[in-house]
Amino acid sequence: MAHHHLWIIPSWTAAISAKGIAWYILLFMSVISPRSVYGQVSYSIAEEMAKGSFVGNIAQDLGLDLKRLKSGKARVYTTDSTEYIELNRERGVLVIKERIDREALCGQTTPCALHFQIILENPMELYRVTVEIVDVNDNAPTFKNNEKRFEISESAVIGSKFVLEKAMDLDIGTNGLQSYTLKPTDNFVLKLHSQADGSKKVEMVLQKPLDREKEENMSLLLTAMDGGDPLMSGTVQIYVTVLDANDNAPVFTKSVYKSVIAENSPKGTLVTSVSASDADKGGNGEVSYLISNTLDGVSELFHIKENGDIILVGKVDYEAAKYYQIDIEAVDNGGLSDSSKLIVDVTDVNDNNPVINIISQSSSINEDSATNTVVAMISVDDPDSATNGEVNCGINDNIPFAIKSTSNGFYSIVTVSALDRETDSEYNITVMCSDEGVPSLSSRISLKLQITDVNDNAPLFEKSSYEAAITENNSPGLSVFAVRAVDADWKQNARVSYILDESMINGVAISSYVSVNAESGVIHAVRSFDYEQIKDFTFRVKAQDGGSPPLNNNVSVKIIIQDQNDNAPQILYPVQTSSSVVAEIVPRSADIGYLVTKVVAVDVDSGQNAWLSYKLVKATDRALFEVGAQNGEIRTIRQVTDKDAVKQKLTVIVEDNGQPSRSATVNVNVAVADSFPEVLSEFTDFTHDKEYNENLTFYLVLALAVVSFLFVVSLIAILSVKCYRWRRDRMFYKSNGHLPVIPYYPPLYADVGGTGTLQHVYNYEVCRTTDSRKSDLKYSRPSSQSIISLDTSGTLSLRKAQRQNMVMDDPDDEITDVNDNAPLFEKSSYEAAITENNSPGLSVFAVRAVDADWKQNARVSYILDESMINGVAISSYVSVNAESGVIHAVRSFDYEQIKDFQFWVKAQDGGSPPLTSNVSVKIAIQDQNDNAPQMLYPVQTSSSMVAEIVPRSADIGYLVTKVVAVDVDSGQNAWLSYKLVKATDRALFEVGAQNGEIRTIRQVTDKDAVKQKLTVIVEDNGQPSRSATVNVNVAVADSFPEVLSEFTDFTHDKERNDNLTFYLVLALAVVSFLFVVSLIAILSVKCYRWRRDRMFYKSNGHLPVIPYYPPLYADVGGTGTLQHVYNYEVCRTTDSRKSDLKYSRPSSQSIISLDTSGTLSLRKAQRDKIVVDNPDDEVS
């Protein structure tokens, strides 16, 4: 940093119209408010410094504290988007942000400087900073061409001048171009001419005559050098060819030409004409012109013709260059030349719109802000000059703001009247700036300003009073209706709470009748009401906002108790008895409208619940009688004939008009006869008429099922007995008469004796509960103690043995915390969305609160604030994790039932006493495409056929029918589209994609089939989409008989079985036959075996001894072979069980002993002593 300066500028007022000035001119900033201070500081740095290089200590130079830089959000503001310098707020210094190239930034302009502002907010302050860029010698002089060629006549006189190309050096000052040298100097010397713009005209002057015969070609070197350190240079090679004599050089008519051209002139515009003459004759007198400017881009903007006309070939811009100096050279064919200069002044044209830049802007402002409060600061710049650059700015009308000029090109927008957020919650301020040029150019920007709310409005109910009705016998907690108040304020100030104003009704507090939800205003019935006890009651509800202090309002509410349809109609006539029959007699001569009888009924309810309607639901002949819907009169609807049956039975239903309706049914017996004996003969068994089974198929199916079941059970029983006996015989014979030892293990028990008796693995489950410590399970405790133990709250505690080892670095600096900060939520309210049909337990999102205290005082727990939603506790909707604040969905939501709900979450710290705060949480249920379209028309039935008839004379576009469908979803999920997917003749019909209308698309002809079947699919617009299909039957015919003949079996695509009864009877007969045959076969086998056994018994044959252990006999020999009770059976013959076994009791232990429990044990010592009464039957 070379140096810096600081100026403090006092405030002053300028006119709104201000003239734009160049970007490098210092701008003085005015004071917006009395407390604002503005100043200016300047620095000087060298170009090409590295990024991060130090520029200056702006905080120290402006006298600002580092805290002020941070709190004011100090930043660098530039009029363009390029920032070469940045502010380090932590250190309060300016550093290089981007590499600075002075030549690219300023060109040849000197001095070269960067101008920007330091902006601070709260309050707004601006400081002007100027950084001068010092040139370093980083560019060498350069020539556009590497060589220059001349053809000079040998007769050229001494002193003849030849213009050389000038070198260009992008550096300035001593680092710029300083001198030229020409070598060798035998024939030519170098001559420099200073020009008005500071540049030098370079000429090569002949100082010694040329002799073509001695030296025809020459080579010279022109060198350009700057004055930097180190010195840098550039060279160009000059080649001279000596020609025959050319006596005269061209001469311009003027040494300097001047011309004026407007910026943005089109290409081809004539700038001026120059002229040079040559006294020679012939070819040596012909003159050609050229522009000798090389590196400054002039040759790309201008072109000189052979006749000396200079025309514009590029685009000139007044803001880029206000004038151009063009070096012109005239050369004859002999190589002699002359030079001149053309100065072209560029006049300004109003071709630049004013540029508006926002310096600082407030996004919001309190509605009670004072007038002249600054809400935004802008800068305006117009690069044009004079009146073209003078700018006037204004804002849109009918808003409480004005724009004021603070200095040249800087404006502030301030309030000029009171603000009201409830009238206008935000403003779009349009700033429009226009210059004084002709035609005038303008620019505009829009600023959005939010008005912050102040609690200045009390809640207002939507109605002056409310009235609602509730049906008696309601369930306690039923939601009656909701009152709603609206607060014109915003956020917390507009948050309305509803409070029940305590009063008495018949000596009972109103709170025992109803309650009001503080959040939603929903009024709930606390008790079940009885219309006979109380008809209506009135109370008041207060609405209070959440402002400070709160504002409130109240409203009157009247609730009317409505009667409920809790009584069915009672039939008074005809009287229904089971012991006698009452029949109404209708003579066969009765005319149409003959009054048969009248059904009389009453309903003890009131209002529409007692309005009765009558309907004939069943009759022997539906075409003979009708019942009056309102009066219950039964009348004939046609002439009675001899063919009508004498016995007529009518069933009439009487319904009331309640919701839901209740009904009673009465049977009316009618006799169509002219004499009482005829009636008596027909109605002998009428009183005992029972409902006959009109569905024979049901009983046939039932019989078939029962017989089949018995048949299957018999087969299973037979096979089970056979298998049991076969296994028993196999086991006995393989054991050589010894009974096998079969161990028995109860289910799920395992062998733990180590003998390996059990061949399989058994599994056990041991479940612990919160009371498992009281169970019989014992757990060993380790000898050592853990450092950290977990308590029920989830916090970790250190044991005393280790707590003493923990010390702070400096125990004297310990500050004991006091619970003086309540938890603060990160947001004032939360909103989240969840898609319907979610899985219960799904994590929705998390609320988070921070407590500025320490340790236990800063430990935050989250609690769900209990409230009711539609009469249901909020805890049945969501839950909150006490530690993390994560909110989980307790149930699966249905968008069609609830679209959103709101509740409160409380954050409580662990201090004593604890401090709390709460936050409002709103969860929106998002619709999911979970419902397919439902068909309303045409109705699809399996028992009847519905066909649309299209006449053969129908024209194109004839409306056949319309498919009507609905989707209970919402939004795009309910947008339906219709498509014809299948048709008997696709070329005859089409369906409207949006309206479902089926129309003909060509003329109907006689060749078209009568039977036409269309299949239409209805799809919704959900992702994925759901659909429904409907079949539409169409008949192309002119008469109904034609349709009937063709559509006899149209409704059934497959042949239905008309002989179902026959097949059921056949199946029943077959199964019954098989069942009887099986029984006969079993009995035959039994009889055969019985006869065979009898024959063998009478033959005195010896039978094998089959040991039999009656049930409940056990081994008591003490050998331990049998671990459990086993049953054995010993059979000698079919009748051997009837014989008596005799057992002798030897001196040794008995073989079989009978204990009191009925079990017998066999001992080995007496096994040979068993005898029976018949020695032939000895057991062996």
TrEMBL record:
CDD domains according to UniProt: Cadherin_repeat
Gene Ontology CC, one term: plasma membrane
Domain called Cadherin: residue spans: 44-143, 144-252, 253-356, 357-461, 462-571, 586-683, 826-935, 950-1047
SUPFAM superfamilies membership: Cadherin-like
Matching SMART domains: CA
GO MF: calcium ion binding
Residues spanning the membrane: 12-32, 696-721, 1060-1085
Membrane topology: Single-pass type I membrane protein
Taxonomy, superkingdom: Eukaryota
Name the UniProt record assigns to this protein: Cadherin domain-containing protein
Native species: Coilia grayii (Gray's grenadier anchovy)
